[in-house]
Write a structure and sequence with these properties.
two-stranded antiparallel sheet, 22% strand
Length: 213
């Protein structure tokens, strides 16, 4: 695992931005039972973790997308991270609404994004990637050149990976479930045998056999 991925995993666990309950699962809105819950908005409330995250996002964009001209956040969770990252890079920033406004100029893209602008999208979490790719599509339709996407964390679900691949989108995350599960065992958040439950859930979220049923 990379130093950054390990650091961010430790950060997320320490503030319960990623919370693991392999023996007392959460219930998602879809009704699926999950051993993991992710709320990366909590990173904004912890100064140390927030700085680690924004420094890493900025470093990733600078290294992987040096030609980036504008940072665009996803609504709503990616907006603050996009703003803080853009500030570090000295770049313009904007964000994409989940739906167009029904008044005024009826914008869906907030902030200036001229056709041909080289954009990197900042996301907080990538799961199945559906909403993330909607943002990319909106920016492309507006004429932006989307270089890629950076996110704080991903479950690494195959559906999301397949969608990103089909869209030919380059993307990077600061950390992921594989690293986090390993760190969680090392740090005593979960038992070694619980790590497999997390990975089994990730492989097929609708199959609840990982719960021992």
């Amino acid at each position: 695992m990379s130093d950054t991925a390990e650091l961010i995993a430790k950060d997320l666990l320490s503030i319960q931005a990623v919370f693991l309950k392999p023996n007392d699962p959460f219930t998602w809105a879809s009704g699926i039972h999950s051993p993991i819950y992710c709320d990366n908005r909590l990173t904004l409330s912890d100064v140390k973790v927030r700085n680690d995250v924004e420094d890493a996002l900025a470093a990733t964009i600078k290294e992987k997308f040096p030609e980036c001209e504008c940072v665009m956040g996803t609504a709503t969770a990616g907006i603050a991270h996009a703003a803080l990252t853009a500030e570090r890079l000295g770049l313009p920033m904007g964000y994409v609404r989940s739906g167009a406004k029904d008044h005024g100029r009826k914008n869906q893209i907030e902030g200036k994004c001229q056709p041909g602008t080289k954009v990197v999208v900042v996301e907080d979490l990538i799961s199945t990637a559906g909403s993330s790719l909607e943002v990319v599509d909106i920016l492309r339709e507006a004429g932006a050149e989307v270089l890629g996407m950076v996110a704080i964390f991903t479950y690494g679900m195959q559906k999301g990976i397949d969608r990103m691949t089909a869209d030919n989108l380059t993307w990077y995350t600061l950390s992921n479930l594989d690293v986090l599960a390993e760190v969680a065992v090392q740090e005593g958040y979960i038992k070694a045998e619980d790590r497999q439950k997390l990975l089994q859930f990730r492989a097929n979220p609708s199959d609840e056999s990982w719960m021992g049923k």
